[in-house]
Every structure is written in C-alpha cells, then in structure tokens.
C-alpha cells in the first residue's frame, strides 16, 4: 500500500482525461478538466506527507514538532486559485461559443468555421 | 476525427502516460517517507524568522512571496478576461432586470431559501474576515477568506434579487477594491526597495507572541490585501456571469 495515494492520482487523472476526450458538452468538458486538475492536489499533498507528522501549524503544538512538508501545501493552494480563475474564464468562453454557434457540442463546434 | 478514432488516439496516449508514470513512480520515495530538505528547513526556521505559526502562510506571503504576486495577478487577469469576454457584443442589448412579461413571472424565491441565506450572510462575512486576517496564526489566509467573503454576496443574491446583489456590490466599487488589493500587495513589496532591502522583505515589526494577530509583520498585511483582491475578483466574476443570464439578450429576442 506504499504507493496507493499515487495510484489514486493516476486514476483521477485518467478518469478526467477520458471525460475530456469523450465529452459531448463544453460545460461537461470543463468540469472534466477540473477533475484532471484535482489529481494534482492529491499528488502534491501525497508527495509531502510524512508518517506520524502534524500539520505545519505551530499554534497549539510545540515548535519543531515533526510536520508534513509545507511547501507542497502552499503549491496546492496556488493550484486551487489558478483552477478557479481558469474555470471562470473557460465558462465565459463557453457562454460566448453558445451565443455564436448555438451549440456546446465540441464535435459540432469543430465542424463550424467563422 | 470520429469518436472511435479519437478513443484510439486517447488509448495510445494513456498507455504512454501510464508507462512514464510507473517509471517515475519507481524513483519516488514511498508515501509518508518524504525526504525534501527545503520544506523541513523552512519548518525549522519559520517561527523564529517570521513569528508566524501558520507555516504555509509564511511560505506563501514571505519565502515564496514573489510567486504569490504572480498568482494574484493571474486571478486579476482572469477577472479582467472574464469581463472582456462577457462584454456586451454587437447586436446585444442590456435589458433591465425587471421582468418584461409581467403575466409570466417565475416562481418567487421560497421563504426557506431567503431565511437561510439571510441567516448565513452575517456569520459568513465574519468568518471570511477572520480567515483573511489570521493567515499568520492558523490554516487561513487571504485566498480562503476572500472566497468566503465573496460567498456572502452570493447569499445576498439568493435571498433577494439581482438588483440587490448589484446594489451591494456596484462594479465601480468592486473594481476599486480589487485594484487596491492587487496594488496593495505589490506596494507592500516595493516599499522595501527604498529601504535598501530586497523586494518583499519583511520590514515590519514582527510582534512579541508568535501567531498573535499583531505578529509576523508583512505576512499579515499582505494576506489582508490578498483577501480584498480575491473577494472582489470573485464578486466581479460572479456578477459578470449572472449578468449574462439575466440582463443580456440577443438582438430582437
């Protein structure tokens, strides 16, 4: 079970990618992209985990208690913020695509030009 | 490309990805066995150096503060981008949010939804504000607090109407707050330069008690500015999206 969290990462990534590839609706596709990105949170937090360590907060535990790696946690926070921003932008593109082409099916969008 | 062909290409790509992933995995230390020296060095030094007990905040707003400036401006750019993409296009006109067909009114918001939304608005604002101002203490900070502050405005929308939401968050004010948040962060960093130290150096007094609200110098201040920026950015994005569905109609429809 030593690598189990990393297997979970691969599974979330694969499921999300499958959704992106087979999606028939842009909003669904965007949500699948969020799923793909969620795998990176699990990866980051899984990489930095230390068995038996506390969270990297020394407010109510004594200083120098062994804690999990705080750098990857900071990276995960960055990751979440960027994801939220990208999602908002993609959804607004989807709105405009629907206005212009009257469809949100990527298959049909690909065959429309102009 | 037909869906079948696409699935074939996807299968090939996933097989390649899986092979490389397994290869990479074989070189990783096992779960719970993290050897990384950088994170542990920060853990040992952060409390003495910054007087912040929230080490993740210390990293975000101090050790890797330069990254966070960039991150904040990603959000700033995304909010601006959403506003540009969702602008009123040619052939569109804005309708007043007052119902145009008085005899075809939608169902009114139920009393239960109004009640709950109003009940939660106050506590949510307090919680968001608390999170944005306690980055130095515990797992909180401007990013989390800002998002929760923005949620309070969504509750206002749920409890009332779009007009009320707009009255609580006029675009000019939200824009100004967002700019003040983003600019404040940069200004706190730049202010270090005339003092002869590097950009984003922590030059404020660090306080006496580690983790107190008054501790950690610029970390607390930057977190507060980030809270303003994130909250305003999300209110802007939500407002833009709501405006699309409620106000803007195609030409003659």
Mean pLDDT of chain A: 88
Q: Which structural class is indicated by helix and strand composition of chain A? A: mainly alpha
The CATH architecture of chain A would be Orthogonal Bundle
Give the oligomeric state of the chains in this entry, treating copies of one chain as homo and distinct chains as hetero.
Answer: heterodimer
CATH class of chain A: Mainly Alpha
Defining key terms:
heterodimer; A: Helix Hairpins; 4 helices; B: 253 residues; mainly alpha; two-stranded antiparallel sheet
Structural account:
- The complex is a heterodimer of chains A (114) and B (253).
- By secondary structure, chain A is an all-alpha fold.
- Chain A is built from four helices and no strands.
- The radius of gyration of chain A is 19 Å and the shape is elongated.
- Chain A starts with a helix and ends with a helix.
- With 253 residues, chain B is mainly alpha-helical.
- Chain B has one domain (54-98, 109-250).
- Helix content of chain B is 66%, strand content 2%.
- The model of chain B has no long low-confidence stretch (mean pLDDT 85).
- Chains A and B meet through helix 1 and helix 3 of A and helix 1, helix 2, helix 3, helix 4 and helix 9 of B.
Brief rundown of the structure:
The complex is a heterodimer of chains A (114) and B (253). Chain A is mainly α.
How do the strands and helices of this protein lay out in sequence?
The complex is a heterodimer of chains A (114) and B (253).
Chain A: H1 4-22, H2 26-47, H3 70-101, H4 106-111
Helix pairs in contact in A: 1-2, 2-3
Chain B: H1 3-27, H2 37-50, H3 55-63, H4 65-85, E1 92-94, H5 111-133, H6 142-159, H7 162-168, H8 171-190, H9 218-246, E2 248-250
């Amino acid at each position: 079970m030593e690598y189990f969290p990393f297997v979970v990462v691969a599974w979330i990534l694969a499921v999300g990618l499958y959704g992106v590839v087979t999606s028939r609706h842009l909003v669904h596709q965007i949500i699948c992209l969020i799923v793909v990105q969620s795998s990176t949170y699990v990866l980051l937090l899984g990489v930095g985990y230390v068995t038996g360590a506390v969270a990297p907060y020394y407010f109510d535990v004594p200083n120098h208690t062994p804690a999990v790696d705080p750098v990857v946690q900071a990276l995960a926070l960055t990751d979440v913020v960027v994801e939220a921003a990208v999602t908002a932008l993609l959804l607004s593109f989807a709105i405009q695509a629907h206005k212009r082409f009257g469809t949100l099916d990527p298959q049909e969008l690909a065959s429309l030009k102009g | 490309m037909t869906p079948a062909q696409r699935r074939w290409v996807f299968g090939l790509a996933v097989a390649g990805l899986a092979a490389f992933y397994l290869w990479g995995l074989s070189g990783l230390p096992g779960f719970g066995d993290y050897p990384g020296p950088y994170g542990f060095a920060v853990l040992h030094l952060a409390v003495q150096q910054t007087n912040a007990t929230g080490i993740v905040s210390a990293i975000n707003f101090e050790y890797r503060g330069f990254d966070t400036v960039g991150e904040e401006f990603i959000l700033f750019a995304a909010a601006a981008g959403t506003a540009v993409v969702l602008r009123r296009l040619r052939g569109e006109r804005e309708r007043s949010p007052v119902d145009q067909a008085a005899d075809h009114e939608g169902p009114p918001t139920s009393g239960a939804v109004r009640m709950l939304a109003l009940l939660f608005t106050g506590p949510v604002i307090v919680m968001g504000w608390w999170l944005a101002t306690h980055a130095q203490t515990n797992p909180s900070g401007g990013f989390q607090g800002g998002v929760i502050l923005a949620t309070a405005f969504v509750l206002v929308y749920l409890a009332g109407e779009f007009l009320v939401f707009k009255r609580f968050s006029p675009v000019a004010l939200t824009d100004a707050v967002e700019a003040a948040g983003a600019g404040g962060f940069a200004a706190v960093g730049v202010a270090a330069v005339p003092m002869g130290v590097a950009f984003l150096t922590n030059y404020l007094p660090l306080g006496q008690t580690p983790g107190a609200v008054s501790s950690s110098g610029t970390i607390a201040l930057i977190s507060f500015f980030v809270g303003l920026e994130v909250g305003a950015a999300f209110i802007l994005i939500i407002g833009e999206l709501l405006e699309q569905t409620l106000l803007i109609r195609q030409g003659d429809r």
